[in-house]
Amino acid sequence: MFISLLGLSACDSEPPELMKASNKFESDEIRDKHVAYMRTNHMDALKHKRDETMYDGIRTEEHSLNACINCHVPESHNGEVLRHTDQEHFCTTCHTYVAAKLDCFECHVDHPTKLDYELKSAKTSISQKKSILKNMADSNIESMQLKSLDKKELMELAFKHVNNQQSTKPPKSGGVSFKALQNSDLESNSSNKPNQTQKTEELTSE
Amino acid sequence: MSSESINNDVSKKIIYCELENNGIGFWSIFTFFAVLILLGIGAFNYMHYHGHYVTGMNNQIVWGMPHVFAIFLIVSASGAANIATIGTVFGKKTYQPLGRLSLLLAGSLLVGGLIVLLLDLGKISNVIEMAKGSINFKSIFAWNMILYSGFIAIIVVYLWTMMDRIKSAKSLYRPLGIANMVWRFLLTMGTGSIFGFLVARQYYDAAILAPLFISASYVFGTAVYSLLIISTFTLTKRDLGNAVIKRLRRSLPLFITAVLFFEFVRHLTNLYATEHHGVESYILSGDMFSLLFWFGQIIIGSILPMILLWGPWFKNHTLALVSASILAIIGGFIQLYIIIIGGQSYPLILFPNAEISSLFADGVFNDYSATLSEYLLGFGGIGISFCIVMIGMKIFRMLPTILDELS
Amino acid sequence: MNNFDSYRRNFLSIVGITAGAAASVTLAPNLLLREAQAKPDDEAVTDAKRWGLLINVDKLEDGGDACIAACKKEHGWGDDPKSNQAQDAQWVRKVKVTEKLTGHSFSLPVMCQHCETAPCVDVCPTGASMKRADGIVQVNKHICIGCRYCMMACPYKARSFVHETLVDQRPNSPRGKGTVESCNLCVHRIDKGENPACVDSSPDAIVFGDLNDPDSTISKELEQNGGSQIRADLGLNTGVRYQGI
User: Cβ separation of A204 and C16 shorter than 8 Å?
Assistant: First the structure.
């Protein structure tokens, strides 16, 4: 009896407060559309996208689960990683409320990761590291274990190298893009993405 | 006796009857199997919660003890229905009254085996996706799903034709007996083919596994069925009579001979092909699996039962049939263990004529020791089978009250 | 500047291009020209391409350690905390081969060979084990029930089963308890026009490219110098070929 009362009151009450998305849409209109669409269709959209990616290799941002997470889950919450097992997690809050099981996060990472793929693809891969190092006139670094270089060290090295080399190039784009690289790597906050993209375009269209 | 029914096929009146409530006896046995189920459920929860790292299975031995149990149950299911087939299709009067129980046992064993197989899956929630239509019809596994569910459907209808007195039931009795027989063949062949088409593994990859499994199913099924009827008839103080025992005593060793024959041919052909020499010597003259093979499967599981049943010393001893059946079951279990675990234990041959090694167990014999939870899961399947059988015998009229007078 | 231009073309077609990308272009204009032209993100893959790898074992000085490390890093496998060594995932491993007669010995990385007629695809009851139109064999874990039949069927032991609950997976390589996994040739990178991680880690020894395109480096190299398959006797027509074995 008591339990059923509780259940009833839960039905009557307002839906729980959801954590605000960490990224904004360009306009309120788009956001409202998104909210209206997602509230009813996110399950189908996600599953559709899932199959598209698996079978056809379609990798657009639209309805990508990683993109949802990057927008909807903060990188840290009260100084800790917010996991799907926490009630505050965007997907969990609501799913607990509607009592719908969600097993996606058994495999998919449930919080934004620094190794976001756009950033990652831009990041120097090992072969690139090698060729960078090969080209370095000044360095005795070759003797170093390439594998042991961490991201930051490598960035610094590369940065030095670029500054040396860039003298033959228009200094502006080289300098700017490289700062952005550092930025994106160390902070990788997608909120400054538009900015970066713009700069890239500047660079590539020259 | 609550009520009676008349079997249409036999001119004499056979009186079938539910198990009477024998108080403590029935319920304590039932409780035993129910506890097995509970333990199995516990083991399943444990494995499922933690993941398979708590089992002895790994990336080398990917199928372990649960699969041995499951395949044993499934294969014996097919054999258990043989009694019904002989009664219906070959008109053997002795077996006809026993047909009902034979089908009940077959269905229950199959269900038990399938549940073990299901509960060992890594991600059971995705089975729903299969139900929604993602099935690959090229897969022998998928075919088996169809064969298994078809088998259960046939059993249900077949049972109905045995038990109902209306005309349509009577006319369907024989066709269904035949359908059941054919289906059983396909089913066991399908189960054997799970292994038979694995080109990767030296020990499998042979079409002869299909007939081997068929003959093995007769052994397992007959042995389990013998144990079941002897124990129920004894415990319910019904009279089993000599004729049935005699038949079972004669057929069980025949089936064992068939298995031995196919094993012999299989190993012989393997020995003929040079590429299989390695695995053959591993199984036939190595360490553990050879011990299991020669002592477990051949001596305990085959020779001893044959002596017990064919030898002149124990004529008409029910006890001889009982012990032979138990031995045959143990032997059969070991046989499957050797096929399933032994076959995986032998390393894959990536480069013939070369020795290979890696951090991922290349070129070595893989160890496997089953953990308690795997055993419990398997025994849970047995519990399920026999709980179903007992409930079935309790609420349906499965067994005749007396058999002797028929012989 | 030619390289640079083709680079730019590739990159322009990538949605979400970042300044970082541009930076790596400017700082290393002499990088290898990548053959894998990026397809537009919203375009489905077709069977016009068939991706393949050619691994030159002689040039692989470390026997594949570097590419194994790169794969681990890319996909995050290799130290699942609770699994024992036989249970831990192994997408690619270094196999040491010693010929019995001659004693000649070499090491090579072995992973999913991306067979044309893949046994794992045939046996999978749900169709989770799949071959994409462009020849990549992978597991669609969303419908994988974890029966491990594909692991039984694979002649290369290329597949692993995840034996425990995992957290903090790579965003591009979701892995989870109870499903089977294997090398997927870094589909997420290929779809973006990049090389698989192992190729980038040993660019001199491993060539990645389109086997259907007679003009690709890999096809030309294969035509000239050939490349063998492991267990060619099985007739699986693998997409991964080796030289020097």
Answer: no
Residues in A touching C17 (Cβ below 8 Å): 118, 122, 197, 200
- Give contacts of B62 with chain C, Cβ < 8 Å: 148, 151-152, 161
Give the contacts of C104 (CB within 8 A, at least 6 positions apart): C98
What's the CATH number of domain C3-37+50-243, 3.90.1170.40, 3.30.360.10, 2.10.109.10, 3.30.70.20? 3.30.70.20
Q: Confirm if B368 and B64 have CB atoms less than 8 A apart.
A: yes
Q: Are B335 and B216 in contact (CB under 8 A)?
A: yes
SS3 annotation, B144-184 = HHHHHHHHHHHHHHHHHHHHCCCHHHHHHHHHHHHHHHHHH
Q: Tell me the C-alpha distance between B100 and B161, whole Å.
A: 10
Q: Checking DSSP bridges between strand C92-99 and strand C240-243, what pairing results, if any?
A: unpaired
- State the DSSP H helix or E strand holding residue C97, giving kind and residue range, or none if neither: strand C92-99
**Is the alpha carbon torsion for C108, C110, C114, C119 positive or negative?**
positive
Domain ranges of chain A: 15-106, 116-204
**B16-28 pLDDT per residue, tens:** 777 776 667 888 9
How many other CB atoms are there within 10 angstroms of residue B38's CB atom? Answer: 13
Can you tell me whether residue C139 is helix, strand or coil?
A: strand
Compute the residue count for chain C.
245
Which residues does residue B399 pair with via DSSP β-bridges, in sequence order? B17
Domain architecture of chain B: domains with CATH: 3-127+138-351+367-400 (1.20.1630.10)
* CA pair distance B257, B223, nearest whole angstrom: 14
Side chain identity, residue A199: K
Question: Helix, strand, or coil here: B218?
Answer: helix
Three-state SS string over C2-71 comes to: HHHHHHHHHHHCCCCCCHHHHHHHHHCCCCCCCCCCCCCCCCCCCCCCCEEEEEECCCCCCCCHHHHHHH
pLDDT at A88 over 50: yes
Name the one residue in this structure whose structure tokens are 């290369």: C156
Question: Can you give the C-alpha Rg of chain C in angstroms?
Answer: 18
Domain boundaries, chain C: 3-37+50-243
Global confidence as pTM = 0.83
> CB A180 to CB C167 under 8 A?
no
At B332-341, the pLDDT tens digits run 999 999 999 9
Q: How far is CA C79 from the centre of its chain?
A: 20
- Are A65 and A86 in contact by the 8 Å Cβ rule? The answer is no
The helix or strand, by DSSP H or E, that contains position C95, with its residue range, turns out to be strand C92-99
Q: Does the beta-carbon distance from B123 to C178 stay under 8 Å?
A: yes
Confidence of residue B276 (pLDDT cuts 50, 70, 90): confident
pLDDT digits (tens, 9 = 90+) for B306-320: 999 988 887 767 889
Contact C86 B59 (CB under 8 A): yes
Q: Are strands C51-56 and C180-181 parallel, antiparallel or unpaired?
A: unpaired
Strands C92-99 and B354-357 turn out to be: antiparallel
Q: Is A78 exposed, middle or buried (0-12, 13-18, 19+ CB in 10 A)?
A: exposed
Q: What is the DSSP letter of B20?
A: P
Q: Which of B53, B145, B199 minimises the CB distance to C83?
A: B53
B-interface mutation test, from C83, C96, C141, C167, most B Cβ less than 10 A away: C96
